[in-house]
Amino acid sequence: MAQPTPETRAARRRLRALRLALPPAERVAAEREITGALRRMGAFRRGRRIAIYLAMPGEVDPATILRAARRAGCEIFVPRVSSRRRGRMSFVPLRPDTPLRPNAYGIAEPVARNGERVRPLELDLVLLPVVGFDRLGNRLGMGAGYYDRALRHRRDTARSWRRPRLVGLAFACQEVESIASSPWDVALDVVVTERGVVR
User: Fold this and answer.
1) pLDDT tens-digit map of 24-62
2) Which residues is 110 bridged to in the sheet?
3) How many whole angstroms separate alpha carbon 109 and alpha carbon 94?
4) Distance (Å, rounded) from C-alpha 71 to C-alpha 52?
5) What does the buried/exposed string (b/e) look like for 121-143 if buried means 16 or more CB atoms within 10 Å of the residue's CB?
6) Among residues 123, 67, 137, 62, which one has the least CA distance to residue 92?
7) Could you give the CA distance from residue 141 to residue 87 in angstroms, rounded to a whole number?
8) How many CA atoms lie less than 13 Å away from 93 in the CB half-sphere?
């Protein structure tokens, strides 16, 4: 992956500052609206395999989404960095009693258990954190490319993979007019904000 341009780095800084500046009450109300929108989309169904991230400061906190998905009988998975040097991550089960520890980036993740992971193709839905997004499904992430590598099969047009469905979670203030996409980027299917669903 190429190094980000100065413009991309500046956009990341600006958008991260915007989401961090949201007042706590506004943030909580927005997260409640996002959870409601996912419910109305039919995201939570018994037996569905859903990957949910564990939030960093400023990101949409999916804690209420996680509770709603568990109540509905979904199987929950979360990302775990499997090789920082290669920029690789896998999706591993998250159960109520799963021990967590911070990884090298300070993000909570399950303690490693041998062989306990699921291939992305076996997931029904992946909820992704977003720094910025546009109306074409382009996502600006933190820049390390973990999700793009893990979900690269979605770029394989020869097979037209449509699983899992990729849903970005963002605050409305994170929308931008346009994000320049790179050949390795994996586009989102949907972005959910407190103002509704961007398809």
Assistant:
1) 999 999 999 999 999 999 999 999 999 999 999 999 999
2) 100
3) 9
4) 15
5) eebbbbbbbbbbbbeebbbbbbe
6) 123
7) 14
8) 12
> What distance in Å separates the CA atoms of residue 41 and residue 175, rounded to the nearest whole number?
20
Q: Hey, is 142 helix, strand or coil? A: coil
Q: Could you identify the residue written with the tokens 């967590």? A: 100
The CA distance from 36 to 64, in Å, is 10
CA distance 176 to 191: 12
Question: Tell me: the pLDDT tens digits for 70-127?
Answer: 999 999 999 999 888 888 999 999 999 999 999 988 999 998 776 788 999 999 999 9
Please tell me the distance from the alpha carbon of residue 45 to that of residue 50, in angstroms, as a whole number: 10
What's the pTM?
0.91
Contact between 38 and 12 (Cβ < 8 Å): no
C-beta of residue 168 within 8 angstroms of C-beta of residue 130: yes
Q: Cβ distance 90 to 123 under 8 Å?
A: no
Q: Supply angle C-alpha 158, 163, 164, rounded to 5.
A: 140
Q: What is the DSSP string of 89-128?
A: EEEEE--TT--EEE-TTS-EEEPP-TT--B-GGG-SEEEE
In this prediction, residues 1-13 reach a mean pLDDT of: 78
